[in-house]
Amino acid sequence: MLIRSDNDGFNHPVPSEITSRRIYEGRRDLIKLMAAGTAGAALAGWAARDARAQAVARPGKLAALPGAKSGVAGAATMEKITPYKDASTYNNYYEFGTDKEDPAQTAHTLKTRPWTVEIEGLVKKPAKYTIEDLLKLSAQEERIYRMRCVEGWSMVIPWVGYSMSELIKRVEPLGSAKYVEFITLADPKTMPFVGSRVLEWPYVEGLRLDEAMHPLTLLTFGMYGEILPNQNGAPVRLVVPWKYGFKSGKSLVKIRFTDKQPATAWNKAAAQEYGFYSNVNPNVDHPRWSQATERRIGEDGLFTKKRKTLMFNGYEAQVGQLYAGMDLKKLY
Ligand code: MTE
Protein backbone atom coordinates (compact mmCIF):
# COMPACT_ATOMS: atom_id res chain seq x y z
CA MET A 1 0.00 0.00 0.00
CA LEU A 2 1.36 3.36 -1.02
CA ILE A 3 0.56 6.94 -0.14
CA ARG A 4 -0.49 9.22 -2.95
CA SER A 5 -0.77 12.94 -2.30
CA ASP A 6 -3.70 14.46 -4.18
CA ASN A 7 -4.60 18.09 -4.78
CA ASP A 8 -7.08 18.17 -1.92
CA GLY A 9 -4.18 18.09 0.51
CA PHE A 10 -5.18 14.75 2.01
CA ASN A 11 -2.72 11.91 1.74
CA HIS A 12 -4.86 9.26 0.13
CA PRO A 13 -3.46 5.86 0.82
CA VAL A 14 -3.59 3.83 -2.31
CA PRO A 15 -2.53 0.25 -2.61
CA SER A 16 0.37 -0.74 -4.70
CA GLU A 17 2.85 -3.49 -4.87
CA ILE A 18 5.31 -0.99 -3.51
CA THR A 19 8.01 -3.29 -2.23
CA SER A 20 7.58 -6.01 -4.74
CA ARG A 21 7.62 -3.44 -7.50
CA ARG A 22 10.78 -1.94 -6.02
CA ILE A 23 12.42 -5.35 -5.87
CA TYR A 24 11.18 -6.13 -9.36
CA GLU A 25 12.47 -2.87 -10.75
CA GLY A 26 15.72 -3.33 -8.87
CA ARG A 27 16.16 -6.68 -10.57
CA ARG A 28 15.31 -5.26 -13.94
CA ASP A 29 17.87 -2.48 -13.42
CA LEU A 30 20.40 -5.05 -12.32
CA ILE A 31 19.87 -7.07 -15.46
CA LYS A 32 20.33 -3.92 -17.53
CA LEU A 33 23.50 -3.04 -15.61
CA MET A 34 24.85 -6.55 -16.04
CA ALA A 35 24.30 -6.23 -19.75
CA ALA A 36 26.17 -2.91 -19.63
CA GLY A 37 28.92 -4.43 -17.47
CA THR A 38 28.34 -1.99 -14.57
CA ALA A 39 26.60 -4.24 -12.08
CA GLY A 40 29.28 -4.02 -9.34
CA ALA A 41 28.04 -0.82 -7.71
CA ALA A 42 24.44 -1.96 -7.85
CA LEU A 43 25.35 -5.27 -6.23
CA ALA A 44 27.13 -3.41 -3.43
CA GLY A 45 23.90 -1.46 -2.83
CA TRP A 46 21.93 -4.69 -2.67
CA ALA A 47 24.42 -6.19 -0.24
CA ALA A 48 24.12 -3.14 2.04
CA ARG A 49 20.32 -3.42 2.03
CA ASP A 50 20.56 -7.12 2.80
CA ALA A 51 22.96 -6.42 5.70
CA ARG A 52 20.44 -3.91 7.08
CA ALA A 53 17.72 -6.55 6.93
CA GLN A 54 20.01 -9.01 8.75
CA ALA A 55 20.71 -6.43 11.46
CA VAL A 56 17.03 -6.22 12.43
CA ALA A 57 16.52 -9.97 12.44
CA ARG A 58 15.26 -11.90 15.45
CA PRO A 59 15.02 -9.73 18.59
CA GLY A 60 16.26 -12.59 20.75
CA LYS A 61 14.12 -15.57 21.56
CA LEU A 62 10.69 -14.57 22.79
CA ALA A 63 8.84 -16.54 25.47
CA ALA A 64 7.44 -19.83 24.27
CA LEU A 65 3.70 -20.22 23.89
CA PRO A 66 2.27 -23.70 24.24
CA GLY A 67 0.33 -24.78 21.22
CA ALA A 68 -0.73 -28.28 20.31
CA LYS A 69 -1.48 -28.77 16.62
CA SER A 70 -5.02 -27.70 15.88
CA GLY A 71 -7.75 -30.12 14.91
CA VAL A 72 -9.77 -27.41 13.14
CA ALA A 73 -10.36 -28.20 9.47
CA GLY A 74 -8.03 -26.13 7.28
CA ALA A 75 -5.68 -25.25 10.15
CA ALA A 76 -2.68 -26.95 8.56
CA THR A 77 -1.00 -26.84 5.19
CA MET A 78 1.82 -28.94 3.80
CA GLU A 79 3.32 -25.87 2.16
CA LYS A 80 6.74 -24.70 3.27
CA ILE A 81 6.66 -22.36 6.25
CA THR A 82 7.99 -18.88 5.57
CA PRO A 83 11.28 -18.23 7.41
CA TYR A 84 10.74 -16.40 10.73
CA LYS A 85 13.11 -13.70 9.58
CA ASP A 86 10.87 -12.80 6.64
CA ALA A 87 7.65 -12.96 8.66
CA SER A 88 9.11 -10.67 11.32
CA THR A 89 10.95 -8.13 9.16
CA TYR A 90 8.62 -7.68 6.17
CA ASN A 91 5.55 -6.16 7.78
CA ASN A 92 2.65 -3.83 7.32
CA TYR A 93 2.01 -1.94 10.54
CA TYR A 94 1.43 1.64 9.50
CA GLU A 95 1.46 2.99 13.05
CA PHE A 96 5.20 2.25 12.88
CA GLY A 97 5.97 3.40 9.35
CA THR A 98 4.92 2.65 5.80
CA ASP A 99 7.97 0.74 4.56
CA LYS A 100 7.96 -3.02 5.05
CA GLU A 101 11.21 -2.79 7.04
CA ASP A 102 10.00 -0.02 9.36
CA PRO A 103 7.96 -1.93 11.98
CA ALA A 104 10.80 -4.33 12.84
CA GLN A 105 13.04 -1.34 13.50
CA THR A 106 10.61 0.96 15.30
CA ALA A 107 7.96 -1.17 17.04
CA HIS A 108 10.17 -1.84 20.08
CA THR A 109 8.53 1.28 21.59
CA LEU A 110 5.15 -0.49 21.78
CA LYS A 111 4.29 -1.20 25.42
CA THR A 112 2.45 -4.51 25.60
CA ARG A 113 1.98 -4.63 29.41
CA PRO A 114 -0.28 -3.75 31.09
CA TRP A 115 -2.80 -4.48 28.31
CA THR A 116 -6.54 -4.82 28.31
CA VAL A 117 -9.11 -5.64 25.66
CA GLU A 118 -12.54 -4.18 26.17
CA ILE A 119 -15.63 -5.97 24.86
CA GLU A 120 -18.60 -3.70 24.34
CA GLY A 121 -21.74 -3.08 22.32
CA LEU A 122 -24.50 -5.60 21.67
CA VAL A 123 -23.50 -8.32 24.14
CA LYS A 124 -25.04 -9.62 27.32
CA LYS A 125 -21.72 -9.62 29.13
CA PRO A 126 -19.57 -6.61 28.28
CA ALA A 127 -16.18 -7.02 29.94
CA LYS A 128 -12.64 -5.80 30.18
CA TYR A 129 -10.14 -8.63 29.84
CA THR A 130 -6.52 -8.27 30.85
CA ILE A 131 -4.08 -9.88 28.45
CA GLU A 132 -3.29 -12.42 31.18
CA ASP A 133 -6.99 -13.40 31.33
CA LEU A 134 -7.19 -13.65 27.57
CA LEU A 135 -4.08 -15.80 27.29
CA LYS A 136 -5.67 -18.48 29.44
CA LEU A 137 -9.31 -18.13 28.37
CA SER A 138 -8.98 -21.17 26.11
CA ALA A 139 -6.35 -23.70 25.05
CA GLN A 140 -3.83 -22.23 22.60
CA GLU A 141 -3.30 -24.08 19.35
CA GLU A 142 -0.87 -23.86 16.49
CA ARG A 143 -2.48 -23.08 13.14
CA ILE A 144 -0.42 -22.98 9.98
CA TYR A 145 -2.17 -20.50 7.73
CA ARG A 146 -1.52 -19.24 4.25
CA MET A 147 -1.63 -15.43 4.35
CA ARG A 148 -2.25 -13.39 1.21
CA CYS A 149 -1.64 -9.65 1.17
CA VAL A 150 -3.71 -7.43 -1.13
CA GLU A 151 -0.40 -6.20 -2.54
CA GLY A 152 0.29 -9.51 -4.27
CA TRP A 153 2.58 -11.39 -1.90
CA SER A 154 1.96 -14.26 0.47
CA MET A 155 3.50 -16.15 3.38
CA VAL A 156 2.81 -19.33 5.35
CA ILE A 157 2.85 -18.65 9.08
CA PRO A 158 2.41 -20.90 12.12
CA TRP A 159 0.23 -18.78 14.39
CA VAL A 160 -0.62 -19.56 18.01
CA GLY A 161 -3.97 -18.71 19.54
CA TYR A 162 -7.53 -19.97 19.76
CA SER A 163 -10.68 -19.44 17.76
CA MET A 164 -12.18 -15.98 18.19
CA SER A 165 -15.50 -17.80 18.74
CA GLU A 166 -14.24 -18.93 22.19
CA LEU A 167 -14.17 -15.32 23.35
CA ILE A 168 -17.40 -14.39 21.53
CA LYS A 169 -19.31 -17.22 23.21
CA ARG A 170 -18.26 -15.94 26.66
CA VAL A 171 -19.68 -12.46 26.09
CA GLU A 172 -22.97 -13.72 24.64
CA PRO A 173 -23.85 -11.50 21.65
CA LEU A 174 -27.45 -10.25 21.54
CA GLY A 175 -29.72 -11.29 18.67
CA SER A 176 -29.33 -7.79 17.23
CA ALA A 177 -25.52 -8.12 16.90
CA LYS A 178 -24.63 -8.64 13.24
CA TYR A 179 -21.07 -7.34 12.98
CA VAL A 180 -17.90 -7.17 15.04
CA GLU A 181 -15.63 -4.17 15.01
CA PHE A 182 -11.96 -4.64 15.93
CA ILE A 183 -10.29 -1.51 17.25
CA THR A 184 -6.54 -1.39 17.59
CA LEU A 185 -4.21 0.73 19.71
CA ALA A 186 -3.50 4.30 18.58
CA ASP A 187 -0.95 5.76 20.95
CA PRO A 188 0.94 8.74 19.52
CA LYS A 189 3.51 8.48 22.33
CA THR A 190 4.71 5.02 21.34
CA MET A 191 3.61 4.79 17.70
CA PRO A 192 5.51 7.31 15.57
CA PHE A 193 3.07 7.32 12.61
CA VAL A 194 -0.15 7.77 14.59
CA GLY A 195 -1.01 11.38 13.89
CA SER A 196 0.20 11.15 10.31
CA ARG A 197 -2.51 11.42 7.69
CA VAL A 198 -1.75 8.08 6.10
CA LEU A 199 -4.91 6.55 7.57
CA GLU A 200 -7.56 7.53 10.08
CA TRP A 201 -6.53 6.29 13.53
CA PRO A 202 -7.19 4.05 15.29
CA TYR A 203 -6.86 1.34 12.65
CA VAL A 204 -10.24 -0.39 12.67
CA GLU A 205 -11.27 -3.65 11.06
CA GLY A 206 -14.57 -5.48 10.92
CA LEU A 207 -16.19 -8.81 10.22
CA ARG A 208 -19.72 -10.08 9.98
CA LEU A 209 -20.60 -11.94 13.17
CA ASP A 210 -20.73 -15.31 11.38
CA GLU A 211 -17.25 -14.66 9.91
CA ALA A 212 -15.90 -13.78 13.35
CA MET A 213 -17.50 -16.97 14.74
CA HIS A 214 -15.94 -19.18 12.05
CA PRO A 215 -13.49 -21.62 13.69
CA LEU A 216 -10.65 -20.50 11.39
CA THR A 217 -10.82 -16.90 12.67
CA LEU A 218 -7.98 -16.82 15.16
CA LEU A 219 -7.42 -14.64 18.19
CA THR A 220 -3.65 -14.72 17.97
CA PHE A 221 -1.00 -14.35 20.67
CA GLY A 222 2.02 -15.94 19.07
CA MET A 223 3.81 -17.24 16.02
CA TYR A 224 6.50 -19.87 15.45
CA GLY A 225 5.81 -21.18 18.97
CA GLU A 226 6.71 -17.87 20.63
CA ILE A 227 4.85 -14.76 21.72
CA LEU A 228 4.18 -12.29 18.91
CA PRO A 229 6.95 -9.84 18.15
CA ASN A 230 5.65 -6.25 18.41
CA GLN A 231 5.84 -5.71 14.67
CA ASN A 232 3.46 -8.62 14.08
CA GLY A 233 0.78 -7.19 16.37
CA ALA A 234 1.69 -8.00 19.99
CA PRO A 235 0.22 -8.75 22.39
CA VAL A 236 -2.94 -9.88 20.60
CA ARG A 237 -4.16 -9.64 17.00
CA LEU A 238 -6.71 -11.04 14.66
CA VAL A 239 -5.89 -13.50 11.87
CA VAL A 240 -8.47 -14.25 9.16
CA PRO A 241 -6.71 -16.47 6.62
CA TRP A 242 -9.25 -16.36 3.78
CA LYS A 243 -9.20 -12.56 3.59
CA TYR A 244 -6.51 -10.16 2.43
CA GLY A 245 -3.98 -9.51 5.19
CA PHE A 246 -5.23 -6.04 6.08
CA LYS A 247 -8.37 -7.55 7.67
CA SER A 248 -6.13 -8.98 10.40
CA GLY A 249 -5.96 -6.06 12.85
CA LYS A 250 -2.90 -5.88 15.12
CA SER A 251 -2.62 -4.94 18.79
CA LEU A 252 -6.34 -5.08 19.58
CA VAL A 253 -7.71 -2.97 22.43
CA LYS A 254 -11.46 -3.08 21.83
CA ILE A 255 -13.95 -5.47 20.28
CA ARG A 256 -17.37 -3.98 19.66
CA PHE A 257 -20.54 -5.83 18.61
CA THR A 258 -22.84 -3.78 16.37
CA ASP A 259 -25.90 -4.00 14.16
CA LYS A 260 -24.27 -1.89 11.42
CA GLN A 261 -21.39 -2.72 9.13
CA PRO A 262 -18.33 -1.06 10.69
CA ALA A 263 -16.42 1.61 8.81
CA THR A 264 -12.97 0.10 8.44
CA ALA A 265 -9.66 1.93 8.06
CA TRP A 266 -8.81 1.00 4.45
CA ASN A 267 -12.43 1.14 3.30
CA LYS A 268 -12.69 4.70 4.64
CA ALA A 269 -9.45 5.61 2.90
CA ALA A 270 -10.29 4.19 -0.54
CA ALA A 271 -13.67 2.40 -0.73
CA GLN A 272 -13.38 1.54 -4.43
CA GLU A 273 -10.13 -0.33 -3.73
CA TYR A 274 -10.84 -2.01 -0.38
CA GLY A 275 -14.28 -3.45 0.22
CA PHE A 276 -15.65 -4.50 3.58
CA TYR A 277 -15.38 -8.20 2.72
CA SER A 278 -11.94 -8.32 1.12
CA ASN A 279 -12.08 -12.06 0.62
CA VAL A 280 -9.11 -13.36 -1.34
CA ASN A 281 -10.52 -13.78 -4.83
CA PRO A 282 -8.37 -14.37 -7.92
CA ASN A 283 -11.36 -13.55 -10.15
CA VAL A 284 -11.88 -10.03 -8.87
CA ASP A 285 -9.09 -7.70 -9.90
CA HIS A 286 -8.02 -4.85 -7.74
CA PRO A 287 -8.95 -1.69 -9.73
CA ARG A 288 -5.28 -1.24 -10.64
CA TRP A 289 -3.88 -4.76 -10.86
CA SER A 290 -4.77 -8.41 -11.15
CA GLN A 291 -5.21 -10.57 -8.06
CA ALA A 292 -4.80 -13.82 -10.04
CA THR A 293 -1.26 -14.60 -8.89
CA GLU A 294 1.01 -14.01 -5.92
CA ARG A 295 4.66 -13.96 -4.99
CA ARG A 296 5.52 -16.22 -2.02
CA ILE A 297 7.94 -14.39 0.27
CA GLY A 298 11.16 -16.34 0.72
CA GLU A 299 10.73 -18.08 -2.63
CA ASP A 300 11.34 -15.12 -4.84
CA GLY A 301 14.42 -15.97 -6.83
CA LEU A 302 15.19 -14.06 -10.00
CA PHE A 303 13.28 -16.44 -12.24
CA THR A 304 10.67 -17.85 -9.81
CA LYS A 305 7.25 -18.06 -11.34
CA LYS A 306 4.39 -16.51 -9.42
CA ARG A 307 1.85 -18.84 -7.82
CA LYS A 308 -1.79 -18.90 -8.71
CA THR A 309 -3.92 -17.30 -6.03
CA LEU A 310 -6.63 -19.62 -4.75
CA MET A 311 -10.29 -18.75 -4.15
CA PHE A 312 -10.72 -17.73 -0.52
CA ASN A 313 -6.95 -18.24 -0.29
CA GLY A 314 -7.47 -22.01 -0.45
CA TYR A 315 -10.08 -22.11 2.34
CA GLU A 316 -13.12 -22.35 0.07
CA ALA A 317 -14.22 -25.74 1.43
CA GLN A 318 -14.31 -24.26 4.93
CA VAL A 319 -15.74 -20.78 4.33
CA GLY A 320 -17.41 -20.78 0.91
CA GLN A 321 -20.87 -21.34 2.38
CA LEU A 322 -20.65 -18.06 4.32
CA TYR A 323 -20.98 -16.25 0.98
CA ALA A 324 -23.53 -18.46 -0.81
CA GLY A 325 -25.71 -16.38 -3.13
CA MET A 326 -23.61 -13.21 -2.76
CA ASP A 327 -22.28 -11.35 -5.78
CA LEU A 328 -18.60 -11.36 -4.88
CA LYS A 329 -17.77 -8.90 -7.68
CA LYS A 330 -19.99 -6.29 -6.04
CA LEU A 331 -19.31 -7.27 -2.45
CA TYR A 332 -15.54 -7.41 -2.85
N1 MTE B 1 -3.07 -3.65 11.95
C1 MTE B 1 -2.77 -2.40 12.34
N2 MTE B 1 -3.13 -1.99 13.57
N3 MTE B 1 -2.09 -1.54 11.53
C2 MTE B 1 -1.72 -1.90 10.27
O1 MTE B 1 -1.12 -1.08 9.54
N4 MTE B 1 -1.70 -3.65 8.55
C3 MTE B 1 -2.48 -4.76 8.00
C4 MTE B 1 -2.67 -5.89 9.02
N5 MTE B 1 -3.00 -5.36 10.33
C5 MTE B 1 -2.04 -3.21 9.82
C6 MTE B 1 -2.71 -4.07 10.71
C7 MTE B 1 -1.91 -5.28 6.77
S1 MTE B 1 -2.03 -4.26 5.41
C8 MTE B 1 -1.36 -6.51 6.69
S2 MTE B 1 -0.89 -7.17 5.18
C9 MTE B 1 -1.12 -7.34 7.89
O2 MTE B 1 -1.48 -6.65 9.09
C10 MTE B 1 0.34 -7.71 7.95
O3 MTE B 1 0.60 -8.58 9.02
P1 MTE B 1 2.09 -9.15 9.24
O4 MTE B 1 3.01 -7.97 9.26
O5 MTE B 1 2.06 -9.88 10.52
O6 MTE B 1 2.37 -10.04 8.07
How large is the count of helical segments? 9
Tally of individual domains: 2
Distance between the termini: 17 Å
- The CATH architecture category of the largest domain equals Alpha-Beta Complex
Radius of gyration: 20 Å
Structural class based on helices, strands and sheet pairing: alpha+beta
Identify the CATH class of the largest domain: Alpha Beta
Query: Can you say what the CATH homologous superfamily of the largest domain is?
Result: Oxidoreductase, molybdopterin-binding domain
Cofactors and ligands: ligand MTE
Give the CA-based shape.
globular
Spans of at least 5 consecutive residues with low confidence:
3-57
Q: Helicity range of the residues?
A: 10-25%
List how many beta strands DSSP finds. 15
CATH topology of the largest domain, what is it called?
A: Sulfite Oxidase, Chain A, domain 2
N-to-C series of helices and strands: EEHHEHHEEHEEHEEHEEEEHEEH
Write the layout of secondary structure elements.
Layout: E1 2-5, E2 11-14, H1 18-36, H2 39-55, E3 68-69, H3 84-89, H4 102-106, E4 116-121, E5 127-130, H5 131-135, E6 141-148, E7 153-163, H6 164-171, E8 179-184, E9 204-208, H7 209-213, E10 218-223, E11 226-227, E12 237-239, E13 252-258, H8 265-269, E14 293-296, E15 307-308, H9 316-319
Parallel strand pairs: 3-6, 4-13, 7-14
Antiparallel strand pairs: 1-2, 4-5, 6-7, 7-10, 8-9, 8-13, 10-11, 10-12, 14-15
Helix pairs in contact: 1-2
The chain binds ligand MTE.
Ligand MTE binds at residues 91-95, 149, 184, 203, 232-233, 245-246, 248-251.
